[in-house]
Please model this.
Amino acid sequence: MLRSTVAGPLVLVVALALARCAPAPAPVVAPTTTNPGPAAKPVASAATPPATPTASVAPHAAAPPSDDGQLQVTVVSPGSGPEAKAGDVLEVNYVGTFPDGTEFDSSTRPGRRPFRFTLGQGLVIKGWEQGLAGMKAGGSRRLVIPPSLAYGARARAGVPANSTLVFEIELLAINPP
Model:
């Protein structure tokens, strides 16, 4: 489901150009102790986390593309309870965008349902596997995923080859009934 993608080098060029014109990202506070994986950059909490998680997470405006091969994880809301680990079934809502904010996929579109998958089984892109490990139910994270941890050189319906992807993900439940 998350491995669907599109084409068009022009779209990527436009996205990169627009990302450079974006306002500076919101300030972040000191890094937390959450470790989403070996290839992830330090995790930081958003300066103004929402009081309560919502059923959908809105995409941000442009984010600078990650060209260093590192996953960027921002904890928007920490959640509570046990941390997600390999073998857990996760139920999430997500919105996937390009760095310019253009949406390419979302579980919150009309007629769609939250997405379920087993963490650590290779059922989703590597950026999700690394970025969701250690997340707690009710929490939300923003992942900026470089091409090497997304679809790489493979173009998919809706996502050009070598695209940096941005996901707003809310973890609804770990091992739901």
Summary: The longest strand covers residues 165-174. The chain has one domain: 9-174. The mean pLDDT is 74.
